[in-house]
Amino acid sequence: MELPEPELIRQSWRAVSRSPLEHGTVLFARLFDLEPDLLPLFQYNCRQFSSPKDCLSSPEFLDHIRKVMLVIDTAVTNVEDLSSLEEYLAGLGKKHRAVGVKLSSFSTVGESLLYMLEKCLGPAFTPAVRAAWSQLYAAVVQAMSRGWDGE
Predict the structure, then answer these.
(1) Is 17 left (phi over 0), alpha (psi -120 to 50) or beta?
(2) 5-146 is classed in which CATH architecture?
(3) 16: closest CA among 138, 142, 136, 106?
(4) Whole-angstrom Cα distance, residue 7 to residue 54?
(5) Mind giving me the DSSP string for 39-99?
(6) Residue 34 · residue 108 · CB < 8 Å
(7) Nearest-10 crossing angle of helices 20-34, 59-77
(8) Per DSSP, what are the bridge partners of residue 43?
(9) What is the value of pTM for the model shown?
């Protein structure tokens, strides 16, 4: 699946990739606002977080944010050849399924991604940029969803 505007994706990501942890934290803070039920999925050493704030400041979760931002970075780098990431993304889908993530939660993650981009880019977050990112994200989720196949 090819994207209409790889240049829009790359250009807009440049601003985000200067401080991935900061922007990734915005993404996950928004995610927990929209879907608080996801918080219990994040447990480290069997310790449940008492609040999103508690989770967002833990070193283990910050590591997860870094990994998520890296996956997005990889998708941006390969925006014109996403099929090369199919296996990798399907494996990532499997990992998420294994810890109890529902495929439906990824639409909320998509909303949170667009929210973060809008906050980061301001007026540069045009309808064309939104459309390009929506398509990129849909392609990534489609590949990841193969990890839920064969249920």
Answers:
(1) alpha
(2) Orthogonal Bundle (1.10)
(3) 136
(4) 37
(5) GGG-EETTEEPSSHHHHHTSHHHHHHHHHHHHHHHHHHHTTT-GGGGHHHHHHHHHHHHHT
(6) yes
(7) 110
(8) 48
(9) 0.91
The CA distances from residue 105 to 15, 44, 51, 145, in Å, are 26, 20, 19, 11
* b/e code 14-24 from CB counts within 10 Å (16+ = b): eebeeebeebb
Cα 73 versus chain centre, distance: 10
Over residues 74-127, the pLDDT tens digits come to 999 999 999 999 999 999 999 999 988 998 899 999 999 999 999 999 999 999
Range with top average pLDDT, 1-10, 41-50, 51-60: 51-60
User: What are 136's two structure tokens?
Assistant: 């990129």
Round to whole Å and give the CA distance between 68 and 110: 12
Phi, psi for 48 (deg, rounded to 5): -85, 145
Cα–Cα distances in angstroms (integers) from residue 42 to residues 2, 8, 30, 96, 134, in the given order: 33, 33, 15, 11, 26
